[in-house]
Amino acid sequence: MPFEIPDNLHPDCAPVAWLLGTWRGNGHGDYPTIEAFQFGQECIFTHDGRPFFHYMSRAWIVDDNGDKVRDAAIETGFLRPKADGSLELLLTHNTGFVEIWYGTAEIGTPRVELTTDAVVRTQTAKEYTGGHRMYGMVEGDLLWAYDMAAMGQALQPHLWGRLVRQ
Predict the structure, then answer these.
(1) Coordinates of motif GXWXGXG in the sequence (predicted)?
(2) Are 59 and 72 spatial neighbours (Cβ–Cβ below 8 Å)?
């Protein structure tokens, strides 16, 4: 699908402008403490001309036929790019986590890499200590991967997906 850079895009957001829009697709999850699973996902990146994007993602577990089984994770937050290509990401999750991430957007390349700086969790949230995320555009699609350290496990691959611009 064609993409046009919005007229009111803040200059600091230029390196990540390729993320803007609604993306949908599928992903996979795996971790030593859980059974492997497949999911559908929708991610939305919006802006209003200020130097940040609002981000929202929702996912749902699917069966082997791709049919929805149940709702899954929801996360929302703000991606705050800086003029030098550095990034700040603030995320809140329905599962009881709040995270602060720092990273970079490669200038001239549709790629973002982020690592957690702080994780705060509610009393009822599962133990989770940190993560690493990568987003990139490949053949016009948004590919992403999330590594997680949780439940006494070291940082390792957990989720990955491929989303198509809507």
Answers:
(1) 21-27
(2) yes
